[in-house]
Amino acid sequence: MNAPASELACEARLNLRHLPRYMDNIADRLRSFEADSTQEGQRIGFRFAFGDGSFDLDRLVMRASAADRDGLARVKDLLATAVQVYAKEESPEIVWTGDLASETSLAQFRQMTVVDVHDLTPRMRRIRFSGEDLGRFAKFGGMHIRVLFPTRDVPDPQWPVLGANGLPSWPEDDRRPVARVYTIRALDVTAGWMDVDFLVHPGESVGSAWAMQARAGMTVGIMGPVGRPVRQAQWYVMGCDETGLPALSRLLESLPATTRGIAFVEVADIGERQYIANATAIELRWLERNGAAPGTDPRLAEAVCSVTWPQDGTGFGWFAAEAEASRIVRDHWRVTLGLGRDATLAANYWRRGTAGLMAG
Ligand SMILES: Cc1cc2nc3c(=O)[nH]c(=O)nc-3n(C[C@H](O)[C@H](O)[C@H](O)COP(=O)(O)OP(=O)(O)OC[C@H]3O[C@@H](n4cnc5c(N)ncnc54)[C@H](O)[C@@H]3O)c2cc1C
Fold it and tell me: How confident is the model at residue 1 (pLDDT cuts 50, 70, 90)?
């Protein structure tokens, strides 16, 4: 690995007895954020588009470096999250030292103000938020955000700050906002706005309930971007319900014109179809539930699983819907077809009867 052109660097000691045991999982996770990895002796390095990370298994130290603050914050967040997730049994305590170690403002957080609300369809509401310094939401390949909402119990939440471990530090429960995951449907960094499409669904909720009464001047927090970049391929099979439609629309608007494939979209009824400026040769097919409850119609998963993958060229499977449909598609791709993570992503966007899935 060549010497990085980095100006900012910091490191954290890892008092973990079994670090080597966790390293395969940590490395897998970091590589899924499009990092190139190398190993020289006991040093495992990761090069991301925005900075470098490394683990020294002899010295039990992890190191982050980048050319700018955003990049350094992102590398620290990815390394610290991977350690927290895979070394959980040893309750790792991470304290970064070095450049920006005393920083308390959270690079991935912005307070946003509603500037426009309008309905795209009877059940899909587009809300435009304005905010400052939104450049990072166009970086790092992730197209999703955690939206932090005020609620009836916490009408005036306190926003998270940066902890010494490089991860968000949250206020006590009585001031803590409630998070839900959404997709940045559109973003204009220069003008300082982003659009988020909220599905308005019945029942007790936080995000949907907030969107139903949203009006100009209201504020939320956002954190991000979150999510991995979608792998470039020549051919795609895609499927989603309304919650995945903002992400699918962005993909169809931005993939190269030569990209082939098929995309199935499940919506409640014909009135929920939306115009998508599909820039690709991917064929779009709508499926309407026509009275079936959301998350109960098997046809979306069946349609996606019935597609024959072409033998030539690179292919990718992308699916985003209710958890049970995603499980069926994931099992089909991974177990029946034997495809790997590098060729498929079947994500749980919500789960019937469960509040706040994936928002933690
Ligand atoms: C990466 C990612 C991106 C996402 N992007 C978007 C997006 O751009 N727009 C969007 O609208 N959603 C999106 N979602 C889905 C959204 O996060 C969930 O639907 C979330 O549960 C909504 O929160 P809530 O507060 O409205 O409902 P919750 O409080 O989480 O749930 C309350 C009840 O409503 C049910 N419920 C949740 N979602 C639905 C639904 N779709 N239909 C019917 N019942 C439901 C739950 O099962 C629960 O019983 C995304 C999810 C992920 C993981």
Answer: very low
Range of the domain at 74: 8-98
Q: Domain with 289 in it: what CATH number?
A: 3.40.50.80
In angstroms, what is the span from residue 285 Cα to ligand 1's centroid?
A: 22
133 and 183 part of one domain: yes
Give me the pLDDT at residue 2, please.
45
Give the integer Cα–Cα distance in Å for 11 and 17.
18
* Cα–Cα distance for residue pair 9/69, rounded to 1 Å: 10
123 lines ligand 1 (CB under 6 A): no
DSSP 329: H
Residue with CA at minimum distance from ligand 1 atom 28: 355
Whether residues 139 and 156 share a domain: the answer is yes
Ligand 1 pocket member 180 (CB < 6 A): yes
One domain for residues 304 and 339: yes
Global pTM value:
0.91
Contact of 281 with 304, CB cutoff 8 Å: no
> Would you say the CB of residue 360 lies under 6 angstroms from ligand 1?
no
Residue range 179-184: mean pLDDT, rounded: 98
